[in-house]
Every structure is written in C-alpha cells, then in structure tokens.
Fold:
Amino acid sequence: MKLLFSIFLVFGFLATHAQKYKSEQATITFFSEAAIENIAATHSGASSLFNAETGEIAFLVQIDGFQFEKALMQQHFNEKYMESHKFPTATFKGKIIGFEKALSGKPEVKAVGLLTIHGQTKQIETEGSLTFVKGKIVMSSIFMIELADYKIKIPRLLWQNIAEKVEVKIVSTYVPI
Amino acid sequence: MNRVYLLALMCWVSFFAYAQDDLMAELQDAQPEKTEYAIQTFRGTRIINGHSVETKGKGELEFIFSHRFGPLNSGAYNFWGLDDAFVRLGIEYGITDWLGVGIGRSSTDKTFDGFVRYKVLRQSHGVTNIPFTLTAIGSGYIKTSPQAKFNPQVSIKDRMAYSLELLIGKKFSPNFSLQISPVLVHRITVNPMFENNDDVALGIGGKHNITRSLAVTGEYFYRVNPHTNSTRSDAIGLGLEIETGGHVFQLIFTNSLGLFTRSVVSETQGDFFDGDVHFGFNISRNFQLIHKK
Structure:
C-alpha cells in the first residue's frame, strides 16, 4: 500500500510536469507606421509557459527589454509612453483554443485571454498558429493593439511621432519541462 | 501514519492545482533578477548654462544651438536686451553610449571649444546598485578675438583655457533629478590684478517635471575661490524645458552670457538680483547616424 502510494505520488508529479512547456526566448516585435518615422522594436527574451493538457498559456515580458534602433526612442518608450518604472512588465494570461487539432496537422488556433500592458487589462482574442516540430511546440501570432485601450498617451505637442495602432508579432518555441 | 499520507496527498493536490492554474505566478517566480538603470536623469546635455551627466547614445549626433539676449534691465531703447545676441553653435557625437566628443563656436570672444565627455558610473538598482551617475568632462577653449592677423602680440597661449568638470547626478524620482558639479577652470593668461589662473566652482543644478514633456530647471555655480578684486559674479539660471521627439527646447533666464564652461564659471558679469538677467534658449536636435544591428 505504502509503495503503491509513493509510486502514485511520484508518477503523478512527473505527469504534471510532462504536460508543461516553457519558452524563455520568445520573440516579440512591434511595428507602427507613423507620418514622420516608423517605430519598431524587438524583444527576444520574453518568457512563456504553456500547459498542453488544458491549453492554458501565460506570457511575461519585461518592458525595458525592447530594443530600438535609436537609443533616444528607446528612452522615450520606457520613460514617457510605457512608464516602465511604474509598469515594468506586460503579461498575457489565457487559453489556446483548438490546440488538440494541431496534433492532427491543423495549425490554426485561437488565443483568448487577458492582455495587460501599461497597467491596463483588456480581454483579447487573436488568431495564430501552433505546430509540433521534433518534440517542440512553435507558436506564432500577429495582432493589432490600440494604444488608447491601454492608456498609452500619444503626445500632441508639435508633431506626432507615434501611430495610434501598433502591430505586434509573437514567435515562441516551447520545450517540455 | 495514514494522516501523514493524507497530508502528503493534500500537498500534492495543492501543488497540482498550483501547477495547473497559476502559470503566471510560476513565470513571475522564474524571472531572473536584473539591474535597472536610471534613464534620462536630465533630458538634455545641458541643464541651463552647464553640462548635465547625460551622454549621447552610440551613433547619435546632437546639434545644439544656444542663444542669450542682452540684459532685461537695458531698457526700452535696447528692447530689454532683445537687440543683442550671443550665440553658440555646437555638435556632439556619441562614440559609444559612454563616450562622446563635442565642438562648438561661440560669439563670445569668438571662442572655439572642444570637449570629451565620459560617463564613469551609471545610476542603477537591482543586481548592481550604484546610487548616482558620474560623468567627467574635459574641455579646451581658444579665443580667436582679437584677430591674430592684426594682433601678433597676443600669443596662442594667451588665447587658451581648459576646464575639468565632475558631474554627479541623481534621479531621485521619475520627476526629480539633482546634480552637483565641481568644476576647475584654468586660464593660461590672466590679469593678476583681478583674475585667477585657476577658478574652482561648485555647481548645483536640478530638474523637476511638470508634465511628461515639460520641466522646470535651476542651476547655480558657486565660485569657491573668487579673486579678492573680482568683478565677476556667480552664475545663476532658471529655465523651462520642453522635450518633443528628438528636440529639447530650454527657455532660460540667467545672469550669465556664458555658453561654455570657461565663460560661465569665470566670466559671468551680471548681477542676477539687480536685473542683469538675460533671456535665452538652448535648442537641441538629435540625429541617429548609426543604427544598431
């Protein structure tokens, strides 16, 4: 009885772990086309966990990890727009819908959940793809963010340097843990 | 004994529940500790008349245009100073994020100046804790007035001066920053009746944001060893700063016509409290010449 119970505990523990996948170098890029100059930045160290049993997924992004071509633009992004000293991270917590079908070769999935940026949380739904490659899971998605939804203020002084909509692209590769 | 197993089972169940439900908490726990650096302690490379701890980013070129009008107390005939103009045109380039070089030319004594700016320490907290930013600036100046062609008796040495500044800046909050700046100015040729070869001053400057793009600034240079017969004053300045995109506009009221360290510390003439105040501005524009990657 004791032995059986112990085995049950150990295997149960392993089983819990085997369903989970992590991604430590998810790439997030965003792009916005504006009148004066385009704004673009890349983050290649976002972290994410995916539970392949339930379809639950979580993303955590350090705002100050976004890299811009221009040092000044990066400073303004953190200091004035994202206020990264107040809101150091952006998160997404939700579910991947249709991930079971991805096993049978249908990569189209949906992600539904809560996106938190700049301290503001919004329910979002976006389409993406999920594929299994040699024991790894690769997910990608492209969606639009409306800056006003997240109370990211656009300066009106003298000229407009930032567009009101930003296109976000995510690519993450998961390994089992 | 069964109780022990029950407890173990409960622990296991709760762990299971944790693993299932709180991916976010798990992610947060797994975040590595990092170092956060203070960004934009000041918005420009100048606070008012003096330099700030800020350096240009790598590959960034700043064009800076500084202007001071005549004194406000010069009366209506002189349009309260607006008839006169003292100008410096300058550029500064970031070789790295830490190291920059700049040159400028001012109408005061038709002076050319050049400087090297190096950020020694960067204020940070987290894994690395440094309480302030330290920047050192070494400058050289050469007067081209009086004109060499007609004044061969004025040697090149007579025209030259140097200065060394140690800028210690701290961003106390997202809105408030303060800087202490010990300065040494060395002029090779002076009139010993009322001028020192070496002037030491202690500058203090601050910035407080009113909105995201607007700030008030203040600056004072206290001369530690003024000559007993000195006819000069300590430089005082108050300013309003507006930042938009790649521009910084600074509107200034100051008793100094100095647009570079030698003239600010050693050659400020006006008495601030007697109305010898000059309106002026610094305008800077940034250009990213070399893009990352």
About this structure: Chain B touches chain A through 39 residues (CB under 8 Å). The mean pLDDT of chain B is 91. Helices of chain B lie at 2-21, 23-30, 156-159, 261-266.
